[in-house]
Amino acid sequence: MTESREFCPRCGNPVPERAEPLPGSPRERDEVLCDACYFEDFDLVDAPERVEVLVCSGCGAVHRGNRWVDVGARDYTDVAVESVSEALGVHVRAEDVSWAVEPEQVDENTIRMHCHFSGVVRGTPLEETAVVPVKISRGTCQRCGRIAGGYYAGIVQVRADERTPTLDERRRAIEIAEGLVADREAAGDRDAFVTEAKETTDGADIKLSTNQLGRTVANRIVRELGGDVDTHPTLVTEDGDGNEVYRVTYVARLPRFTGGDVIDPEDGEGPVLVRSARGNLKGVRLATGERYESSFEEGDSPDARRLGDAADAEETTVVTVEDERAVQVLDPETFEAKTIPRPDFFDPDAETVPVLKSRAGLHVLPDDAGDERDGVDEGDE
Questions:
Q1: 0.70 exceeded by pTM
Q2: How far is Cα 177 from Cα 2, in angstroms, rounded to an integer?
Q3: pLDDT confidence of residue 24
Q4: Same domain, 274 and 350
Q5: Residues 147-195: pLDDT tens digits?
Q6: 30 shares its domain with 66
Q7: Distance CA 250, CA 208 (A)
Q8: Which own/partner pairs from 72-80 qualify as long-range (CB within 8 Å, at least 24 positions apart)?
Q9: For the chain, how big is the Rg over CA atoms in Å?
Q10: Which domain holds residue 68?
């Protein structure tokens, strides 16, 4: 590099000739210094004395900027590396910069970061090392604070029409709520959480963080288990802008009948084993084996009386097959031979069959009648 006609104002030594800045561009103040004087005050890296990382003691989220972020880390070494990387500053005049960070775990809440940098400034290779301690401090994020305080905005009550929801229905409703919230959390929604979910003598009560979440959960429950949703808003307060704040109760009312019920519709065609109550009622006629489906107007609650449950069926002996329409079996209570209708699903080679005795008489049930069927159409299999 040739020497210019300029001299360093600090030491008086000639300053190497450099390219002139573009017209209109300001000239750097330190450009007039020689390399020796320039590097006396030069710092390749601007490193903080200490970096603090705030971690939620409840869920492990990390506070960044003005929000909490789920990082899904078992330890916070990677978080410390990232935080230090964001806090470090490399001189704008440096070129071909490379760097590496070596973490040293001092204790549970302290990580010492050894940072090594190299770069080229004014054609001169430089190296610099900085040690930055990272302090992991504990706090509580807004989400965990709300959960701990029992905060909720929406309530889903699972009930049933003229009956109590079954144990399976109660548990499935809670599973639906928890699964939907888990999906929201996985997508990064920190406002979605279940405050409380419990089975009650009337059904199930689920407290959720937002009204929108409550509505979605209630709709998902009735979409799978059948029924409909009633909405009951309650004014609880006003926000800082004077807007009314409501807490909404969503009642997911399940159908009167459910899979496994044996009912007698008021159409004179005999009992029906209910297979599904999703949308409208679907099942099979026990006298013939024909498919049954309630009308659109009747929906999932046609006019019918409940005769019993498939779980109450008893195994009995087949005496003889009389013809295509009749079969003779032993009455499980009196052990008398009785002739009853022979439905299409009856196996003529069977030695025993499940039967249900009710006020409508004795009827053969399908072998799979005791299976959990609610929410599954026959055509879905």
A1: no
A2: 76
A3: 42
A4: yes
A5: 888 999 999 999 999 899 999 999 999 999 999 999 998 888 888 999 9
A6: no
A7: 11
A8: 76/111, 76/136, 77/103, 77/105, 77/111, 79/53, 79/55, 80/51, 80/53, 80/111, 80/113, 80/134, 80/136
A9: 38
A10: 45-142
